[in-house]
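Field: sequence (string)
Field: structure_tokens (string)

Example rows 1 and 2, in order.
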Amino acid sequence: MKKVVFFAIILCAGCYTPLNNSGVATTKPWIEIPGKRVDFDGKQYDSCVQFKLRFWPQEAAQRLDLQKACVTACCWRSEGSEIVLDFNKNFEQELKEYGRARKYSPDKITLKVSHSNLVNVTRAAVSPRGAIKNNGLVKLSYKEVEDPKRLAQIARERELADQIRYQPMVVPTQAPGPSPVEKDTTVVVTTTTKKTVTLSPEINAARAKALVQNRVGTQIDTYFYQMNKTYRTQNALFMLSSRLFVPQLQADGSYLVTCHAKARTGIDAQHLNTSDFPCGVWYANLQTQTVRPYDKKAQQIAQ
């Protein structure tokens, strides 16, 4: 009788767990097994697990390394069976840079992956329980945290950047020529001296922001245009309102300019929330008038 019950349990487990291309069953439809490793007897000793998750609000996914979170690529169980989705990992940094940042709840979601060779089923225990819906939706709540002093500083920098676009670093002044030399071999020599003008840090910062806007502004606009298309495919709204550029002076006189944008997002016009979206950190050199991507987001936009 016990054997009958045991085989009935195995049969039920096989009926209620979806099979993947690798022939491995899972307890949730959002767990996929793109590949597996087997020994000489054909028994599985490792598998590559991928989570087909969706996030709401979508901006929460930008706090994650989606590859390490096994969302955009599968992860081998042997390399780590516990995956942590930390949605507040960069909260303090964003608040310091932008003056405003979201604090999500739950702040972390932990997935512990296990596999049973007996019934050939892969499971993922989720903590906190219920944080991931059966259809793979991760729905988070959040609150907007603001730093009034930092926001005021950003507003002043933006106002200055709007006023100053370019100011020359060098002003040439012509010195009087020497008196004529006797004889027919008279040579008149004119010399030019350069007077170096030292610009204030505020002006140089404004010039760095203007340089980034002129060089990569179109690419940043294209990035947000694609993001708007993504929202539309999910029947959601994305309304971009402004872009902000925050410069930081480096030891060599160059600048790292952090870009972020304000946008209103929501499921419809009656449910819109104001959010900040990062658009990369850019290296700006005022001497050579060059701009290049500095972080992964900027590299993504520059491609």
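Row 2 begins here:
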Amino acid sequence: MIRLAVTKLTSVEDAQSLLQTAIGVEFGTLPPYLYALYSIPPETNPEATQLIRSVALQEMIHMCLACNILNALGGNPVIHAQQYPGPLPGDIGPNNTPLTVHLYPFSRDALAQGMAIEEPENPPDYPVKTAALLAEAVPKAVTIGQFYDALDKFLATLPPSAWTPNRNQIVDKQFFPGQLYAVNNYADAHKAITQIVSEGEGTSEGSEYDPLDFQDQPAHYFRFGEVFYERVLTRDPDSQSDYTWGPARLEVTWPPAGRDLTDPALHNFSNEPAAAQAAQAACNAAFTRMIDALQGAVTGVEGALGEAVRFMFDLRMAALHAFSVPLNNGQFAGPAFIYVPNLHGDK
């Protein structure tokens, strides 16, 4: 579980600081989600692949929307690479014990971690409609949604003069049509925050909770849950909780335990085959170029978002190759998501 620190907001600078934390959290979820995604063996698990990919794509959009809000308030977004294993930015955890986020290959550990990150304030205890599958419960946590709610309430109090229209806004109709738009005022910011929270955790009206987002798709927590439980989230009027996991199955073929390396940044590749070292270098180069392009995009560089998307594709191809190159012990390792400063002196 993650628990983000929120103090009383009294200034635009306070809101800017919270937004930078939000940007770090959104971007910080990408490596663990992508590591799980890229480790799925080719030609297997099409439903799980689609679900995890959709979450990762929306996290990228959420990060860009948070950057748009920060830019509209006169701030300057910074895209930071993070270390794995390690906590997400701003996570103080329950009892000062932050969640250590790992790069898990596709496994129940990876899905449980995704559920812990995306968990709603009071996750509903939907029954699993099968006697054969026993799943560990994901602990309850104070959520990212509450963090955004505090931010939204403060932004609503700001005067129109606090907003600077058309400042370094990322607006895209090619890659993210209808999902990535300019933030020029509070109404735009509220729309963006509502989208971020709805897609991550679901929606609520008073005491009524809905696991579907504003597009009637399962929120991130429940997309991960469908794969974890191997059951499709199903509306069930006969259930006290309105929904159940199943009975319809979501077919999952789990790779053999230990096939893929967890937390490749902790591994010493210096004694591995040259092909494995080259694969890691290619992953780090693509990741570095993606971050550099994203940084350009959030600071108003024209065409930089398109570059970032291209480098994200390069990262995918490099990662898929890395997962096909055996290490000396027979395992496979995906990208460590390490940023390389001044890579070749350019981007």
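free_text_note (row 2): Residues 129-142 have pLDDT under 50 and may be disordered.
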